[in-house]
């Protein structure tokens, strides 16, 4: 069977999981093509491994996420390995990565020699993206899941970057560190199962999703950041947050960290999904 025949056969199925995007991705992957245009050039060729493709389609039909079937996910212009031990990178997190990069440039310059920590790194996307951009910085990535760190290490190798990976609970792996300039984190923040798709619940790691209460990890990170870590220095904290957390986080910041400057940012749907914190009033512009 040719790629063209398979494409139109699958297109007839068009359902929640088998749609134009997933069909294209599987066919591109099967032929080892570069992109959709490359697939079109080979559209009338025989499928290289039809058996493998049919198995992948069965997995897709049963609801398994495309990225776990392919073994990789796309994140800001690049592919990263993923498996069910790590969260599949989300579009919002791409926004967090790029926006954090922009803020680092504004605060510290183009290629600063600073220390950046990614807490709850999962597949490693945030830390690896920043290390690729800021070659001179030191990046430490932490996660409580050893299995997630295995994938993150492998991604760092694929992206040819040196990262210090550490296993442990929140800031515990960096408790002896000093002079940290940037903390970036997309911690678990989902309150209840009801707000999550059945596909995510079934396939993605529980550990990456839920926090009780939802604010728990932000509170932990903020309360553990004492003067020893960030004393008197310029620093940036960049968080992805749940869309209903602005008020709770504002209250926390106003109660305990009145001296810090912070700003919330929205995602493409207009939902408040990011929180950026700095400690230097002269640098307010960097938050915008
Ligand atoms: C929402 S996922 C984010 C993964 C990745 N940074 C991303 O943005 O795709 C949260 C990550 O935090 C990790 N995690 C959960 N509890 C943790 C804890 N107590 N300490 C450190 N990491 C934790 C999970 O294993 C998971 O990899």
Structural summary, described in words:
With 288 residues, the chain is of the alpha/beta class. The chain folds into 2 domains: 3-63, no CATH class; 91-287, Vaccinia Virus protein VP39 (Rossmann fold, 3-Layer(aba) Sandwich). It is 41% helix and 16% strand. The strands form 2 sheets. A 7-stranded mixed beta sheet has the order 5-4-3-6-7-9-8, with helices on one face. Strands 1-2 form a two-stranded antiparallel ribbon. Strand 8 and strand 9 form a beta hairpin. The N and C termini lie far apart (54 Å). The mean pLDDT is 93. It binds S-adenosylmethionine. S-adenosylmethionine binds next to helix 7, strand 4 and helix 10.
Supply database-style keywords:
alpha/beta; binds S-adenosylmethionine; 288 residues; 13 helices; Rossmann fold; 7-stranded mixed sheet; two-stranded antiparallel ribbon
Number of helices: 13
N-to-C CA distance: 54 Å
User: Which structural class best describes the helix and strand composition?
Assistant: alpha/beta
The hetero compounds bound to this protein are: S-adenosylmethionine
CATH superfamily of the largest domain: Vaccinia Virus protein VP39
Shape: elongated
Low-confidence stretches: none
Top-tier CATH class of the largest domain:
Alpha Beta
Order of helices and strands: HHHHHEEHEHEHEEHHHHEHEE
Q: Using only CA atoms, what is the Rg?
A: 21 Å
How many beta-strand elements? 9
Please give the CATH architecture of the largest domain.
3-Layer(aba) Sandwich
Number of separate structural domains: 2
Task: State the helicity in percent bands.
Answer: 40-55%
User: Beta-sheet strand percentage?
Assistant: 15-25%
Task: Sketch the major β-sheet.
Answer: 7 strands, mixed
| CATH-defined topology of the largest domain | Rossmann fold
